[in-house]
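1st attempt posting a full record on here, be nice pls
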Amino acid sequence: MFKRLSTVFRVLRTGWVLARHDALVPSEYAKDVPLPVRLLGALSRLFAIGGRASNPGERFAGALEKLGPAYIKFGQILSTRADMLDPVFVKGLSRLKDKVPAFPMEKAEAMLEAEWGEAWQNRLSSLSEPIAAASVAQVHKGVLKTGETVAVKILRPNIQKCMRNDMDVLHMVASLAEFFVPDSRRLGPKKFVETADRAVMLELDLRLEAAACSELSEPAVETGLYEVPHIYWDLGGKNVMVTQWIDGTALSDEAILALPQSQRTDIARRIMQSFLACSFDYGVFHADMHEGNMIIGDDGTLVLIDFGILGRLSEEEQRFHAEILYGFLIRDYHRIAEVHFEAGYVPAHHSVEDFASALRSVGEPIFGQTAENVAMTKVLLQLFEITEIFDMEMQPQLIMLQKTMMQTEGVCRRLDPHFDMWEISRPIVEASMRRELGIEGRINDLVSGLHKARRTLERLPDATENIAALAKAWADGDVDLSRGAAPIADASTAKKGPWKPLAYIGTGAALALGSLWASGQF
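the predicted structure (as tokens):
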């Protein structure tokens, strides 16, 4: 009860902080909202502080920094969408990418000593002031006793408690949204927050981040599209991670936009193709692809950093998304529709043909168009309307992929206004489809099927014994599974007939095999 009350106060505090920064309903956009919301914004500005920034995005960023790390993460995602939002607003948000205020040096030194069990001077020759600070951690530049330059990442003090409080607020807001706006349930705000909650809490253990970095190093080597820093495992822990120092320029730096357009176009290509290759070919991807987490090395190499959030796709999910993208590439809207129905994402009472036609209405106007010619806000609005018409529910397991794809495309659009998502995606998606639907894919499906059959056969003796025991119990009248029947205490009162054992055996076998099927063992 106390926790819920505390969360309510935090929700109210969120509204208050936004109002104080004129970020609840910014005055610049008041004319674009309904009258009741406009009046709420006017009322909130009576409590706004003086000397506010003129940029509404900067005011919003200031409010998010005041509110906490989970809110900053939300702002970071918004800051990648200059094609959807007012460019002035997005520019103001850009400070959230890697310019969050740092915590004091003495606290960083205390965190290192607590993690290492000794003063940092015993392991490092030098340690700089914070070089970059983000919502969850900050980075210092250090030099090992052996002379290598390293990046020392340190979690913010008490970040676990702060993040937990922030996520509790988001859980409550999602619940309120589903209660007061029933139509929002189809989008699954509660499921979305649950997915985000798990991802964010995993980010608060730097040992897991180190493991994620190591895992993404494998596709980095095989694809050659990007690199990741080397990890110093002996210096790492839950609150500290030490990696190779990367000399270069972060994509969040405005200097990147001064590079020749051909170079920026190539960077955008590598960013998108690396994301797609990791997702569709390896089933694992960097799930926080904002500009602050990407560096262009002095030699032009694309280097990914900050692996706190890692996304995963099952083989079925990899194939599903690859088929959808491939369907748009070849404009096979009927196949895209079929894939949705096969995955169960569209209720069966709808028509495949009708859904295919709706997808065509989205795909045809934007096919082959570059970023500057596509109004993404209109596309998303149309997709939203289609999902509502066809009773589609949001799939929590795919939200992270969809969010990251949106984030990644936003970064590419900033680098290259003529960015063509279709042509950049084509080589990766076509290779994925050749693998999934070609000979290799069919062989893999066969081998997977044989493994499932083997596991089923291994369990068959136990299943047979269970069926026999169940059949005997039913035949003896010890149990009765007929609807509404009470347990039979006295077997002598049960009617028996020669048909019952056969019926029970048949039903029991169906139940047993059905259980194996449902559990994926058959």
